[in-house]
């Protein structure tokens, strides 16, 4: 597999979706992430409305490893079924991200777009 580089997240058109949108950019051929997996990922996250990047493992120069069950619901629903070597785009509405506006997180009330590269699962 070719080494993936930091993705450019295309600015979305139209109103934010009200449901989780899952789109495979690259389909991997390695081990499959399951609901209880720990995942090793590279990712970039942008706000749907502004297109502003709010987080990126690429910016830190290293991947991130997380148990899926501690991540936002959009990741818990959107990553299982993905295979190592894949790149997936998730568009996550507020209720599957950081909750409604005023919920106490700086991203509360925002629809978020993530592009996630799955590097490993355990």
UniProtKB/TrEMBL annotation:
Question: Which InterPro entries does this one have?
Answer: PPIase_dom_sf, PPIase_FKBP_dom
Q: What class of enzyme is it?
A: isomerase
Q: Which controlled-vocabulary keywords does the entry list?
A: Isomerase, Rotamase
Annotated EC: 5.2.1.8
Origin: domain of life: Bacteria
Q: Where is the PPIase FKBP-type domain?
A: 36-122
PROSITE patterns with a match to the protein in the record: FKBP_PPIASE
Reaction equations catalysed: [protein]-peptidylproline (omega=180) = [protein]-peptidylproline (omega=0)
* Gene Ontology MF terms in the entry: isomerase activity
Q: Which family does it belong to?
A: Belongs to the FKBP-type PPIase family.
What name does the UniProt record give this protein? Peptidyl-prolyl cis-trans isomerase
Its lineage reads: Bacteria, Bacillati, Actinomycetota, Actinomycetes, Mycobacteriales
């Amino acid at each position: 597999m070719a080494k993936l580089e930091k993705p450019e997240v295309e600015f979305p058109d139209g109103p934010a979706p009200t449901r989780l949108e899952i789109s495979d950019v690259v389909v991997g051929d390695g081990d499959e992430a399951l609901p209880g997996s720990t995942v090793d990922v590279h990712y970039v996250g942008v706000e749907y409305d502004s297109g502003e990047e709010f987080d990126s493992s690429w910016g830190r120069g290293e991947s991130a490893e997380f148990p899926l069950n501690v991540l936002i619901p959009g990741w818990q629903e959107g990553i299982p079924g993905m295979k190592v070597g894949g790149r997936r785009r998730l568009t996550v509405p507020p209720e599957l991200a950081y909750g409604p506006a005023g919920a106490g997180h700086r991203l509360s009330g925002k629809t978020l777009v993530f592009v996630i590269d799955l590097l490993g699962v355990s």
